[in-house]
Amino acid sequence: MYTLLYILAGIVILVLILSLIAPKTYDVFRSIEISKPKSEVFNYLRSLKNMDDWSPWAKKDPNMEKKFTGTDGEIGCVSYWNGNKDVGEGEQEIKKIIDGERIDSELRFFKPFKSTSDCYMKVEDAGVSGTKVIWGFSGQNKFPMTIFSLFKSMDSMVGPDFEQGMASLKEVLEN
């Protein structure tokens, strides 16, 4: 009986220690240079409907249910999706626009796990006719995801999708 109590106490202490040392936040981003003027790239990016042309998740479930509310490209516009197990269910709402520079959104995931993250798209000059696009998202790791993040980072989970999305965005805008 005491052995079982010691084992349980050891597991509880291990979980507490792991949760103390685990990362509490994440910030995943990728960038790419596109051979188009900054204003043209920015105007394309501000449309949530345009994301379907280059988003890696739209390709993972081309039949996902999509709904838009509000005026596309304006603060308050919401893109809702409900798809297969690869894309889950959630919504993205434009929260802030710094014209010609940055679009901030809030991502709200409902399935497979409930979470909220901040998402952003930034554009910067990259030479004579080029634009650097930075796409990222950040948020808080909540227990038990804090412990999980010790073994598999958010960057390793979504970074490859961001790279694929950036490559698709470049292809769409340059062709």
Secondary-structure blueprint:
Elements: H1 2-21, E1 25-34, H2 38-45, H3 51-54, H4 56-60, E2 65-69, E3 78-82, E4 89-98, E5 102-111, E6 115-125, E7 131-140, H5 145-148, H6 154-174
Antiparallel strand pairs: 1-7, 2-3, 3-4, 4-5, 5-6, 6-7
Q: What can you see in these coordinates?
A:
With 175 residues, the chain is an alpha+beta fold. It has one domain: Alpha-D-Glucose-1,6-Bisphosphate, Chain A, domain 4. Helices cover 35% and strands 35% of the residues. The chain contains 6 helices and 7 strands. The protein has helices spanning 2-21, 38-45, 51-54, 56-60, 145-148, 154-174, and strands at 25-34, 65-69, 78-82, 89-98, 102-111, 115-125, 131-140. The protein has a 7-stranded antiparallel beta sheet with strand order 1-7-6-5-4-3-2. A hairpin with an 8-residue loop joins strand 2 (65-69) and strand 3.
Rough outline: elongated
Note the quaternary state here.
Answer: single chain
End-to-end Cα distance, whole Å, is 70 Å
What is the CATH fold-level name?
A: Alpha-D-Glucose-1,6-Bisphosphate, Chain A, domain 4
Please give the order of strands in the largest beta sheet. Answer: 1-7-6-5-4-3-2
Uncertain segments are none
The CATH top-level class label: Alpha Beta
**CATH architecture field:** 2-Layer Sandwich
> How many beta strands in the DSSP annotation?
7
Percentage of helical residues? 25-40%
Total domain modules: 1
**CATH superfamily heading:** START domain
- The succession of helices and strands, N to C, reads HEHHHEEEEEEHH
Tell me what portion of residues adopts beta-strand conformation: 25-35%
**Alpha-beta content class:** alpha+beta
Biggest sheet details:
7 strands, antiparallel
Radius of gyration over alpha carbons?
19 Å
Counting DSSP H or I runs of 4 or more residues, the number of helices is: 6
